[in-house]
Amino acid sequence: MARSASTYESVIDDFKVETNRKYSSVGGTKCNIFAQNVMSAMSADLPSGLANQMADALLGNKTPGWYSVTFQDAQKRANLGYPTVGIRKAEGHGHVVVVRPKGSSITILKEVQVAQAGTKNYNSNTINYSWVAADLPGVKFYTHD
User: Residues 96-132: pLDDT tens digits?
Assistant: First the structure.
C-alpha cells in the first residue's frame, strides 16, 4: 500500500471510532480491536491479543515490520502516512492508541496526535487525553514500514 498522510487519515476516519458501536466501552474497552483494525487496513498487522500482549510482542522489535521509535519520530512517521501506535503495558489492562497525522512536527510528548477506543473514544485528540500525565513517559511507540 502506498503511504501518505491523506490515505492514513482516511483509513482512520473510515472506522468512525467515536460512533461505531463495535468500539463501545460497554463490557470492556476495545482499544486493541480498533488499533488492530486500522493497522490491518494499512497492511501492517499488529500482534493479536490485548494491549499487554501486543506490548510484549512489539518489545525488542520482535514483530516483523514493526520497530520502536521516539515520540517525535512516531509523529513524523504518522505525518508521512506510516502506520504507528503508542502502547503502554499496565497491571490488569494496558492501552494502545493509533498515532495519526497531525500536519506538523512536535516537541513535547503530550502533543502526539492520536485516535483511540477506550473509556472514551477519540478520532483525533492529543495523547494526554489517553493517559494521565504520570503514565505518559511509559508509553512506547512503534511504526511499520
Answer: 999 999 988 899 999 999 999 998 999 999 999 999 9
